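Is this the right way to post structure tokens for a design question? Let me know if I should format differently. Anyway, here goes:
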């Protein structure tokens, strides 16, 4: 019996997961770490104290279930001008502090590399924003898998723009151009492209480093699933010339029970006094598919003028709603929203959440009927799993590409009509008017077009659930990858 145990320990793979320090990247990488641990890989997640607090309750639950997973916390460096405990980049992080956090990450690089050497993992999984880790893994002679954020489609579209520069062939920012070489015929405008794709910026060079580091890595991991964007998964592999595995939707796979769903993403970030229990009671009082969920993710804020338009559109549309609001520093904004909140509380038509929301629990609730989203892929996947159509309101990053996937390829949502890409912490000049918002909401909440969208998204929801079951595409991908990594370990030991 003892020899069997020793053999089992020898065969067990040891992995280090290194997530990035923004919530939208942190949560899916942690979900992937939990997924590998569920399949018998011994997992250590390395992060800093403030970032660990976002997900530690999930790790503790997994550990209590007997899964081989833990968190190794590294103290964030003291950077002059950076307040203690500020270690995460999100919508509330000013540009100056973002730079100082990046400075702290550069200091941590050496510590991370030393931990790789000391812990002796069989492989590492690191976020795309740590391109240096490809060389670190090569030095140790172990595979590096890179977590690539967003989805296959958006990376294919970005590569198309880099390769063919179709935006350079139009005369104005508002003129449409086709994205050549993709499986579908799709059009965009120059104003919808990220600024780093339009002209060289520091981020342009970082993206080039990320792409080069992926080509030096063992392969890439996506939180997607084949039935969602299989044509683009295949296209991506051809274009990149590297291995890649879709192992999603990861949020569905690892968040099994109500505690997992409610605790995902740090439940104590918000500033409001209303509880999750009160929110669920409010949802319980509503009819099926009658509530609109409005959320723009952890990285986005709006100026007061846009918040006013959203508020009026929600009041005018005639549907109950939950709106996740992120405050800005405008006192007028705060006063207007407090009045609005008081009004909709009295009418019982709306529910405002300040800061963090238990999103998985809200989307899963039968009263929730559709989602207004910034087209961040975490929310898109979670909405698809719940079988909910979308109002697409892209803002920055790769989100305008994601909108094309949702609206034009999958046809599971409608566009709110946003035309201007903007940088993080930049409000831009565009204000989407209440009439446009209302029109999009009415489309996804009722009518013939809505019925067809619901049918399509329900099919994808069913496919998502099949993908992670035994014999499903994502289940097979993960199983094959783990077996492949075991073979690499065995060959190394010969």
């Amino acid at each position: 019996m003892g020899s069997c145990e020793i053999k089992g320990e020898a065969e067990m793979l040891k992995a280090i997961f290194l997530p990035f320090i923004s919530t939208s990247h942190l949560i899916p990488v942690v979900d992937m770490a939990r997924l590998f641990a569920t399949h018998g890989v011994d997992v250590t997640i390395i992060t800093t104290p403030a970032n660990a607090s976002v997900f530690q309750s999930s790790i503790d639950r997994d550990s209590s279930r007997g899964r081989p997973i833990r968190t190794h916390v590294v103290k964030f460096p003291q950077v002059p001008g950076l307040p203690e405990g500020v270690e995460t980049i999100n919508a509330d992080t000013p540009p100056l502090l973002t730079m100082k956090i990046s400075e702290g990450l550069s200091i941590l690089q050496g510590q991370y590399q030393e931990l790789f050497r000391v812990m002796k993992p069989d492989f590492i999984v690191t976020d795309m924003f740590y391109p240096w880790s490809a060389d670190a893994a090569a030095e140790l002679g172990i595979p590096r898998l890179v977590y690539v954020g967003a989805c296959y489609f958006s990376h294919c579209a970005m590569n198309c723009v880099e390769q063919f520069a179709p935006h350079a062939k139009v005369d104005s920012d508002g003129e449409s151009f086709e994205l050549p070489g993709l499986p579908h015929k799709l059009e965009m405008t120059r104003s919808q492209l990220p600024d780093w794709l339009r002209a060289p910026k520091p981020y342009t060079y970082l993206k080039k480093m990320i792409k080069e580091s992926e080509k030096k890595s063992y392969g890439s991991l996506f939180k997607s699933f084949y039935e969602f964007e299989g044509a683009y998964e295949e296209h991506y592999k051809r274009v990149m010339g590297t291995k890649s595995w879709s192992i999603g939707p990861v949020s569905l796979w690892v968040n099994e029970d109500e505690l997992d769903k409610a605790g995902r993403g740090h439940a104590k970030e918000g500033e409001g006094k209303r509880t999750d229990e009160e929110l669920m009671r409010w949802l319980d009082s509503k009819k099926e598919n009658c509530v609109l969920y409005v959320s723009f993710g952890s990285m986005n804020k709006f100026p007061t003028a846009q918040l006013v338009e959203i508020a009026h559109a929600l009041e005018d549309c005639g549907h109950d709603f939950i709106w996740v609001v992120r405050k800005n520093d405008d006192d007028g904004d705060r006063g207007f929203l407090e009045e609005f909140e008081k009004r909709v509380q009295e009418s019982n038509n709306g529910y405002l959440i300040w800061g963090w929301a238990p999103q998985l629990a809200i989307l899963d609730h039968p009263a929730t009927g559709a989602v207004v989203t910034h087209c961040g892929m975490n929310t898109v996947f979670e909405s698809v799993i719940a079988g909910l159509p979308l109002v697409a309101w892209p803002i920055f990053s790769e989100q305008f590409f994601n909108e094309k996937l949702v609206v034009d390829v999958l046809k599971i949502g409608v566009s709110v009509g946003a035309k201007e890409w903007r940088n993080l912490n930049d409000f831009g000049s565009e204000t989407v008017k209440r009439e446009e918002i209302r029109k999009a909401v009415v489309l996804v909440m009722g009518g013939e077009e809505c019925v067809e969208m619901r049918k399509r998204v329900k099919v994808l929801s069913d496919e998502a659930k099949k993908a992670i079951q035994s014999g499903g595409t994502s289940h097979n991908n993960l199983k094959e990858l783990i077996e492949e990594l075991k073979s690499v370990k065995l060959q190394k030991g010969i």
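Format looks fine. Someone answered above. Worth noting: Residues 2-253+468-493 form a domain with the Rossmann fold fold (CATH 3.40.50.2000). The radius of gyration is 22 Å.
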